[in-house]
Design brief:
It comes from Aquariibacter albus. With 236 residues, the protein is an alpha/beta fold. Helix content is 45%, strand content 19%.
């Protein structure tokens, strides 16, 4: 039996969370279990795998509404998830990032109040004592420039995301480029003070200051016109 238009609208989730992953077996269950209350409240959770070689898929399937398999690449994976999302709003969440309590309500309120997109402040967990400084600088720079990073939990109205054509399918800086395209349309982000919590794996593995300097160099080269492909090679 088909639903009436009113019933179909009522059944539509308010929020679709799109989570790309690649070889995240060690932590994906904890990430998805933390989102279980939102699923229970009727929100949609979509996981998009980019070719994991561990048992990420098996661990994720019982804990998400949809688990998709697609080509590797965070931008491609997020676009694939968004293409089948049913929610009015989209939240793109990394596999090692946790929403704060009340995060879904806060982003919904910001979008309902007139924002087309936004992001959270971020807190980085890891061994280095410099990570609180890194997070504070990220949050301040983002608030000043209007540029958001994927670690900050980017959210948008679904219609805005689709009008924009989604994330540019490039191997690095897709979050920066999405932000730039939104800003060129005159759309400033809602910068929420609530903090998502993300893992400081790359800072722990490479060292805090080497990673900071590397990211500054890559950002500078991107602003100067370097190709995302060249930057991805340098990042790896």
């Amino acid at each position: 039996m088909s639903l009436s238009p009113a019933e179909a609208a009522a059944a539509r989730p308010r929020l679709s969370i799109v989570l790309p992953m690649l070889n995240e077996a060690a932590g994906i269950e904890a990430t998805l279990r933390a989102l279980a209350p939102l699923r229970a409240a009727g929100q949609e959770l979509i996981v998009v795998d980019g070719g994991s070689q561990d048992d990420s898929l098996a661990r994720a399937r019982p804990l998400a509404d949809r688990v998709l398999e697609g080509p590797r690449g965070r931008a491609r994976q997020m676009n694939a998830g968004a293409s089948c999302a049913r929610g009015e709003h989209l939240l793109f969440l990394h596999a090692d990032t946790r929403l704060p309590p009340g995060g879904a309500e806060a982003l919904g309120a910001a979008l309902d109040a007139g924002a087309h997109w936004g992001r959270f402040d971020v807190r980085i967990e890891g061994r280095s004592r410099w990570l609180p400084v890194v997070a504070a600088l990220m949050n301040r720079r983002s608030r000043w420039t209007g540029i958001a990073t994927g670690d900050q939990g980017i959210f948008l109205r679904a219609e805005t995301f689709r009008e924009l054509g989604g994330f540019p399918e490039q191997p690095l800086m897709e979050d920066i480029e999405l932000s730039r395209r939104l800003l060129r349309r005159g759309l400033r982000p809602a910068c929420l003070r609530l903090k998502v919590q993300t893992a400081g794996r790359r800072w722990d593995e490479r060292g805090a200051w080497p990673t900071i300097l590397l990211m500054w160099r890559l950002r500078w080269r991107y602003w100067r016109g370097a190709s995302p492909e060249a930057l991805a090679r340098a990042y790896r």
